[in-house]
Give the backbone structure.
Amino acid sequence: SVVVDCESGYVRLGLAGELARELGGTAVTLDELRADSIAGLVKDVTAAGRAA
């Protein structure tokens, strides 16, 4: 699973990170999102799913 953390600003609850941990996935921030990073992340998650 990939969870996109949309929180910004001074007050952040960290819910995306918690959700990603519960799902056994990865949390990424909007700042980290680029086409190449999304493609690499999907490949990593897909490979991890196949290995499990």
Q: What stands out?
A: The beta strands are 2-5, 26-29.
